[in-house]
Specification:
The structure holds two protein chains of two kinds. Chain A contains 23 helices and 24 strands. By secondary structure, chain A is of the alpha+beta class. In chain A, the strands form six sheets. In chain A, strands 19-24-20-21-22-23 form a six-stranded antiparallel beta sheet. In chain A, helix 9 crosses helix 11. Chain B has 22 helices and 23 strands. In chain B, a hairpin with a 4-residue loop joins strand 1 and strand 2. By secondary structure, chain B is an alpha/beta fold. Chain B is 37% helix and 19% strand. The chains are: A alpha+beta, B alpha/beta. Chains A and B meet through strand 9 and helix 20 of A and helix 22 and strand 23 of B.
Chain lengths: 606, 558
């Protein structure tokens, strides 16, 4: 429901007079009623005069997208159902809240022109400027980077499905210490596609790992946010829509989330604490930012931009640029060091300990690994020089250079030949030397030879080795920017029309329903009933004055005077769908025989 | 001080990184030294470690837990890891949980702070073996003779006992330090020697009187020992690694104290004098005729009412002496070493039986203040000659190591280094006798090995000191406690498998303070089994704070 005109258009014509009499105090036509209801000054005045509770109800409906399904109503207010119903009735009398249909269990609808007023109310008290927002908490991808580096340093064997064996977990715990939630970080890397299984062992995928480090912590935060939203489809967009960059009260935000979950996931139990938990998580992740008083909340601006434009800005917190390279071959890396360079350090050095300062050690093995991955002596020296806080000790550079030159290389020519360079003492026994330095590998023995040479730290070049950049792909899941839908529009079955809340009541079942007619008969009171038109099954409104109630064949009937025609008619009580609750101030206008379809109605000027 | 300028980083495992380049380095170092042990001190960042033992040491010096945490917080760049804070508090809570007091007769009384500690201690079957009587709810007694062993067990159980039994003062002996040495030089303790002495002595209270002083070679550990003797004023037994060291100790005592030759006895394979101050070797104490026979000379430990025992080079203390030490816990005990590194990992035993480390200082710091010589370390990497290369490829790993160590090119490099330092006293140190003989012959230099008689060794050392012998070739016998003050160049042609201890001791030979810079060369065969061990040694020296330069020589250089 996007406008008052559309809403009024769904009110049966014969009810417009009654409704306008009730709301405005005089009967009028649909157009005037719509205009009158749209007056923002009047609406603000009315809202300002409402009680806290009444405003809270309006706010709740607004946060639910200006429509509240009846099951949501029951779920939210089950403790104070009667009170809330009476509040809604009062609001209905003022033309602020409507209800679709006659069953009494149809959605509650907020007057569309009230939405801007409620949006203003939502941010009431939030100053435009000068809100002192707390610094965003530091969520680093450091644990992931050191995990990747640890996986490079130690060989971890795993079961199918990439679950490391117990020994593997122990090894990781040993290296990564108590600082890191090892299992969570590992499985996140697995989901992100940064690691894969190769021959029963876990292998770091160079490309995705680099991409992960390059995209940085902001992308990781957003990924965690989207992951948290995954069980609740559309929640991410909803957060963007309701929270935004300007911010709103934390309590309002929490309630809005609750309504969203209650509305869209009625089958989920115990969602009462979910919004608070999600907000805490998002604050923890730095997705949301709260002010110093912890009353207001907003989406962190860089996150907001990324969600809106898909453009990732610089990291939220600044990186330190201080790596210390010690003469004893240790590299000391702070946690807040640039992740990409940190990842690169793991390529050339072995992780000894991940801690406040992570300690790496350059070793022959690590340099062997680096050379195999495409580094060379010059590149290594330049890299170390670039990242080091102090001058790189000379002995470190020379030792590395010595290792690089001493590394043995073997080139396997597809099929049978192995060309060896600088490692005559490292070849397996029993190979035929065809020419000096060229050996024949027996059929089907290539893998054994490769394994043997690998153990001896010989760099092997194979024609079938996959280039690093082709291995694996990063899996961030949802792409950015988020597609944020406009405000939800109602898809209601409006066959039975829309009425101010509480104006129409369904006829109670059984004896209670008959009692109403009996009492009207006794008091000579007129009733407005919604009754199916003969032969069509469509609803028609009658104003009747009951005379006599009788039962025939177990079915109750009421004999009444039709006030419009002045004739006496008999009505089947069980077929009365609803009745107008209030004292009727004026007669319904001459009703058309049936309601027009809402779609047709909405096209006509009200 | 803003956070980023703070020099200390506390790691979650209790190690402390201290950035040397920071302006607050010295203040921070002084703040943490009382409760953290120095592990390594490479050029940029030094590593200390907080352990239960270091905490108990601090507690025994009267430092409170809050004080430790405040000092850490003051200099720490990041928040203190909660685990470390917890462990410090936990270790502190255990300190003084048990007290050892003298009881009537030949018994010691152990008092627990609360019954639960007592219950926990008595639940340990090995501890309970020693218990004589239980005095509920919080005390029990043990035999006085089990003092050392019992303390050791309690340390293992995680409960250090606050030993308030006190020390046997020993037979009195007047020992005074000279103002001027016999050789005519002014003499007084240097500041760090005085600090080490005060830390050990602790005002003569039961808090002190046992412990280990760690100082680099050439920085005057012997002087600290003599300082302690002058405080204790008691008969002293000094244990050394070899006879040459015994003679050096005796010479130093005569030179720097008012003791006379009549007061000082030598108890070695050659002489068996037991005097008020007796200097002996670990070898003679552990000598026995057969593998199962008794240690005939171990009674020396009880031969006099010693009031003080000094263990020189305590890191090589042999196991039987350890055991004997457990029996003499009533005596004051001082350990002296340059490297409290035991390749057998028995540092904990050293703590419980000799005493806690009571003083340590980075080598580089003494070097910068001129108390030890400035040293440059060079690693010269050589190829293998073609003929040895073939032999090398065919051999087992152990044999490969020897071939690499005895690389013939090394002889040539030695010659060039000797030529380069022609006017300096040079020590050539090696592992393999055949290689050393070859080099000695080539250089026409005398050779000292285990087979060289002590008198000949003394004569050669004397000649070297006097400058009559410019080049001396020595085997590993010269690793320890040899004072060759003028040696300024050491060439290490081969060594054991990367022993850190050996490296420190060999370097120590040239660290005695002198006018010129000392140079330490290590010759290594590149791309060989020796390479890996050389790398370990390189790491060790770098961790001691030495600048390490690498030179590559190619076959064309020969």
């Amino acid at each position: 429901m996007t406008s008052n005109a559309e809403l009024i258009g769904n009110i049966p014509t014969y009810m417009v007079g009654i409704i306008s009499t009730q709301i405005m105090g005089e009967p009028t036509d649909a157009e005037r009623l719509s205009t009158w209801l749209s007056d923002p000054v009047r609406l603000r005045r009315i809202v300002a005069g409402l009680s806290e509770k009444e405003r809270a109800v309006l706010s709740d409906i607004f946060e639910l997208g200006s429509q509240m399904e009846w099951h949501v109503f029951l779920r939210i207010y089950r403790q104070e159902l009667t009170t809330m119903r009476s509040i809604l009735e009062k609001l209905g009398e003022r033309g602020l809240v409507f209800q679709a249909g006659l069953s009494g269990r149809d959605p509650v609808i907020l007057l569309p022109s009230l939405s801007p007023v409620m949006a203003e109310l939502r941010n009431e008290g939030l100053p435009d400027t000068a809100v002192a927002w707390k610094d965003v908490r530091s969520v680093s991808i450091w644990p992931h980077v050191v995990m990747l580096n640890a996986l490079r340093t130690v060989k971890i064997r795993c079961r199918p499905g990439m679950e490391p064996f117990k020994k593997g977990w122990e090894l990781l715990e040993e290296r990564l210490g108590a600082f890191i939630e090892i299992r969570r970080v590992y499985w996140e890397l697995e989901v992100l596609g940064c690691v894969q299984e190769a021959k029963g062992a876990i292998e770091v995928l160079q490309g995705p790992a680099q991409e992960f480090a390059m995209e940085g912590e902001l992308r990781y935060r957003i990924w965690r946010f989207l992951q948290a939203c995954r069980p609740y489809q559309g929640l991410d967009a909803k957060v963007m829509e309701i929270c935004g960059i300007k911010g709103l009260a934390r309590a309002t935000f929490e309630r809005a989330l609750f309504f969203y979950l209650a509305h869209h996931f009625p089958e989920m139990d115990a969602i009462e604490h979910t919004p608070a938990d999600l907000i805490s998580l998002w604050l923890e992740l730095g997705i949301l930012q709260e002010d110093l008083s912890e009353k207001w909340i907003r989406i962190q601006d860089k996150v907001y931009q990324a969600l809106q434009n898909g453009k990732l800005a610089q990291p939220i917190t600044a990186y330190r640029d201080e790596v210390i390279i010690q003469p004893n071959m240790e590299i000391l890396v702070p946690q807040d060091f640039d992740p990409l360079d940190h990842l690169n350090i793991g390529e050339i050095a072995d992780l000894v300990q991940a801690d406040v300062i992570s300690i790496y050690r350059l070793s022959r093995t690590s340099i062997f690994r680096a050379i195999r991955d495409g580094w060379n002596a010059e590149k290594l020296a330049n890299f170390l020089d670039r990242i080091a806080k102090h001058v790189v000790p000379e002995n470190v550079l020379k030792t590395i250079a010595g290792w690089v030159t001493s590394l043995s290389q073997a080139h396997i020519i597809r099929g049978t030949f192995l060309v060896i360079n600088n490692c005559r003492d490292k070849i397996p026994h029993g190979l035929d030397e065809i020419l000096p330095g060229i050996y024949r590998i027996p059929e089907h023995c290539e893998d054994d030879v490769i394994t043997f040479l690998d153990r001896k730290s010989v760099i092997i070049q194979r024609p079938d080795r996959m280039p690093a950049e082709q291995e694996g792909e990063m899996n961030w899941g949802r792409t950015l920017p988020l597609q944020i839908p406009g405000r939800t529009e109602f898809k209601l079955t409006l066959k039975s029309g829309i009425y101010p809340f509480g104006m129409v009541m369904p006829l109670p079942y059984g004896h209670k329903g008959i009692e109403i007619f009996e009492q009207a008969a006794l008091q000579g009171q007129a009733l407005v009933i919604f009754y199916p038109k003969h032969g069509y099954g469509e609803t028609q409104v009658y104003q009747i004055t009951p005379i006599y109630i009788f039962t025939k064949g177990g079915v109750s009937f009421v004999e009444a005077v039709n006030d419009e025609s002045g004739e006496t008619e008999v009505f089947d009580v069980s077929k009365v769908r609803a009745l107008l609750k209030q004292e009727v101030g004026c007669k319904p206008q001459k009703a058309e025989s049936k309601h027009e379809k809402p779609s047709q109605r909405s096209q006509k000027p009200a | 001080m803003i956070a980023s300028e703070k020099p200390v980083i506390v790691q979650s495992d209790g190690s402390i990184l201290l950035e040397v380049m920071s302006e607050a380095y010295e203040d921070a170092r002084d703040a943490i030294l009382p409760f953290a042990e120095l592990i390594k001190s490479p050029e940029y960042v030094h590593t200390y470690r907080v352990t239960p033992i270091s905490i108990w040491n601090a507690a025994s010096l009267g430092i409170t837990c809050d004080d430790i945490l405040a000092r850490l917080a003051r200099y720490s760049r990041y928040d203190l890891p909660p685990g470390v804070v917890f462990r410090i508090k936990e270790a502190f809570s255990r300190w003084d949980a048990l007290r050892m007091l003298r009881d009537e007769g030949d018994r010691l009384r152990i008092e627990a702070k609360n019954p639960s500690v007592m219950e926990q201690i008595l639940a340990n079957a090995r501890i309970k073996e020693y218990v004589l009587d239980i005095h509920p709810p919080q005390a029990f007694t043990i035999p006085a003779g089990m003092r050392g062993r019992f303390k050791h067990l309690l340390i293992k159980a995680g409960y250090p006992v606050n030993d308030l039994v006190g020390y046997d003062p020993g037979d009195p002996l007047t020992i005074r330090l000279r103002q001027k040495t016999m050789s005519g030089h002014d003499f007084s303790l240097r500041q760090y020697q005085q600090e080490a002495l005060e830390n050990f002595w602790a005002g003569g209270s039961t808090r002190g009187g046992q412990g280990i002083v760690v100082l680099p070679c050439g920085s005057g550990k012997t002087v600290v020992g003599m300082g302690v003797m002058s405080k204790a004023q008691t008969c002293t037994l000094i244990l050394c690694t070899n006879v040459a060291a015994v003679h050096q100790w005796m010479g130093e005592l005569l030179d720097k104290t008012e003791l006379t030759p009549e007061d000082i006895g030598e108890y070695t394979g050659f002489k068996k004098e037991i005097k008020a101050v007796t200097v002996t070797t670990y070898q003679i104490l552990t000598y026995r005729k057969s593998k199962t026979g008794p240690f005939e000379h171990m009674q020396l430990m009880r031969a006099r009412n010693w009031g003080l025992l000094i263990y020189d080079e305590v890191h090589v203390l042999p196991a039987p002496v350890f055991r004997a030490t457990t029996e003499i816990q009533a005596k004051r005990r001082l350990g002296l070493t340059a490297t409290l590194v035991r390749e057998d990992g028995l540092e904990e035993d050293t703590f419980s039986l000799i005493g806690p480390k009571c003083y340590d200082v980075p080598w580089k710091e003494l070097e910068s203040k001129g108390f030890i010589a400035e040293a440059l370390c060079f690693e010269i990497r050589l190829p293998l000659p073609a003929d040895q290369e073939r032999e090398y490829a065919a051999e087992s790993e152990r044999a490969q190591f020897r071939i690499a160590s005895e690389n013939h090119y090394k002889d040539s490099v030695v010659k060039r280094i000797v030529h380069k330092h022609a006017d300096e006293p040079i020590l050539i140190i090696g592992q393999y006798l055949s290689q050393l003989k070859r080099i000695a012959d080539a250089m026409q230099a005398p050779l000292i090995t285990g087979a060289t008689s002590n008198s000949k060794r003394d004569n050669l050392y004397q000649a070297f000191r006097a400058g009559e012998v410019p080049v001396l070739v020595v085997s590993k016998v010269a690793n320890f406690a040899i004072d060759l003050p003028d040696a300024s160049v050491a060439i290490q042609v081969s060594g054991t498998f990367g022993s850190r201890q050996e490296e420190a001791q060999r370097l120590g030979r040239i660290l005695r303070p002198k006018q010129r810079i000392s140079t330490f060369y290590t010759l290594v065969t590149a791309d060989s089994a020796e390479d890996e061990f050389a790398h370990k040694r390189q790491v060790f020296l770098a961790e001691q704070g030495y600048k390490y330069c690498i030179e590559e020589w190619s076959p064309d250089d020969f």
